[in-house]
Amino acid sequence: MSTNILGLGIHIKVKNFAKSLAFYKTLGFKQVFAYGPQQKVKEDYDGVVFAHGGTKLEIASGHRAVKPKVFQQLLSSSKISLMIQVPSLKPLLTHCRKANIPLAVGPRHYYWGTLEAVIKDPDGVVLVFIAPYSASQAKILHADETWSTK
After folding, report:
1. Do 88 and 35 sit in the same domain of this protein?
2. Residue 29, SS3?
3. Where are the alpha helices (H) located in the chain, listed in sequence order?
4. Full domain range(s) for residue 21
5. pLDDT tens digits, residue range 43-72?
């Protein structure tokens, strides 16, 4: 049997909806749907869906099938991370500096041909931003080169 997968989505159960919404919007995530007490689509809690290509990211402050205490938990490990492809890390790093978003891991050059940087959302979800490697970009970004060889 093979499964015909049409897309992929991630649902993040957030502790502070307003803070998470502002975080993802400031990074440029495109909102395509909203629901909640003050929205056209009514629900007892707030939620937003962002979409990029065939991927959807949903954040919500509640869910009918999830116990409320789950929304108060923060992630304390990097067991799961979102991998986000970008053409360049430079705009992200500039934005993070201006928006006071700390880098969890600064720019690194990996031997498989990428430049990567890591930030965490307000609930501790790891976001890995990945750009194609270029020597000139690595130099401009002061990328850590210790990961560039195996």
Report:
1. no
2. coil
3. 17-26, 90-98, 135-141
4. 1-73
5. 999 999 999 888 999 999 999 899 989 999
CATH number at residue 145: 3.10.180.10
Give residue-wise pLDDT tens across range 1-39: 678 877 889 999 999 999 999 999 999 999 999 999 999
> Which phi and psi angles does 74 have, rounded to 5°?
-105, 150
Q: Which two tokens stand for residue 130?
A: 């990945």
The residue to which tokens 């600064």 are assigned: 106
Q: Could you tell me the pTM of the whole model?
A: 0.90
* Same domain, residue pair 33 and 62: yes
b/e per residue 20-48 (b: at least 16 CB within 10 A): bbebbeebebeeeeebbeeeeeebeebbb
Residue 35 sits at the vertex; the CA angle it makes with 118 and 127, to the nearest 5 degrees, is: 5
